[in-house]
C-alpha cells in the first residue's frame, strides 16, 4: 500500500516533514536579507531564480532555540495557498512514504498544535508532519505581501 509521501528534514535535532505535494525543491542556503516591517515569523527574504521568497522561521513558531544561519543549512522551497515560501532547515533527510495508519492526529495528542497535520510513529522515532496551509495566518500573509511591496518601492 502506498503511504503519504513526505519530505523529511531535521531542525534542532528533531525530525519534521512536509507533504511532498507542497515541496518544490531543496536549495543551498543563499544570503537571507532582512525584511523591514515583516511579521516576526519571517526571517527575511531570498532570491530564488529571480523570485523574492520569504523565509519562514519555524524555530520561532515551535519555540526552538534560535540559531544563526550556518553554511550547511538548506532551504526547503514550498508552495502553499498560491504562495512560495522557504523554510531554513538544519539538514535534509530525504523523501519517505509513511503509512497513514502510523500517523496520529496531532489535535488528539495536544491542544494548540494547529500547525501540525499529524505525528508519524516510525520504527526509528517520531516525525512531526507540518501543515503549511495553517502555518501563516491571513494577517501574516498580508503583512508579508505589504513588507515585500514596501521594500520593492524603496529599491526603485
**Main sheet specs:** 6 strands, mixed
| SSE succession | EEEEEHEEEEHEEH
Helix % is 10-25%
The strand line-up of the biggest sheet is 8-1-2-11-10-9
- Name the quaternary structure: single chain
CATH topological fold name: OB fold (Dihydrolipoamide Acetyltransferase, E2P)
What's the CATH C level? Mainly Beta
Helix-strand makeup class: alpha+beta
Strand residues, percent: 35-45%
* CATH-defined superfamily: CheA-289, Domain 4
Globally, the shape reads globular
Number of strands: 11
For the record, the count of structural domains works out to 1
Query: Would you tell me the overall average pLDDT?
Result: 85
How far apart are the termini? 54 Å
Number of helices: 3
Radius of gyration from the alpha-carbon trace, in angstroms: 16 Å
CATH architecture: Beta Barrel
Write the layout of secondary structure elements.
Layout lengths: L3 E8 L2 E6 L3 E6 L13 E7 L2 E6 L1 H4 L12 E7 L2 E7 L1 E8 L4 E2 L1 H4 L6 E7 L2 E6 L7 H18 L1
Parallel strand pairs: 2-11, 5-7
Antiparallel strand pairs: 1-2, 1-8, 3-6, 4-5, 6-7, 9-10, 10-11
Amino acid at each position: 500500500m502506498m503511504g503519504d509521501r513526505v519530505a523529511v528534514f531535521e531542525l534542532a535535532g528533531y525530525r519534521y516533514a512536509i507533504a511532498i505535494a507542497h515541496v518544490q525543491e531543496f536549495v543551498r542556503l543563499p544570503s537571507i536579507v532582512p525584511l523591514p516591517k515583516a511579521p516576526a515569523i519571517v526571517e527575511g527574504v531570498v532570491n530564488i531564480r529571480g523570485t523574492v521568497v520569504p523565509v519562514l522561521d519555524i524555530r520561532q513558531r515551535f519555540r526552538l532555540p534560535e540559531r544563526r544561519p550556518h553554511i550547511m543549512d538548506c532551504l526547503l522551497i514550498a508552495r502553499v495557498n498560491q504562495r512560495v515560501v522557504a523554510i531554513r532547515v538544519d539538514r535534509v533527510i530525504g523523501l519517505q512514504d509513511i503509512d497513514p495508519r502510523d500517523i496520529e492526529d496531532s489535535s488528539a495528542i495536544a491542544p494548540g498544535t494547529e500547525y501540525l497535520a499529524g505525528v508519524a510513529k516510525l520504527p526509528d522515532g517520531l516525525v512531526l508532519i507540518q501543515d503549511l496551509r495553517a502555518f501563516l495566518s491571513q494577517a501574516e500573509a498580508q503583512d508579508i505581501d505589504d513588507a515585500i511591496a514596501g521594500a520593492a518601492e524603496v529599491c526603485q
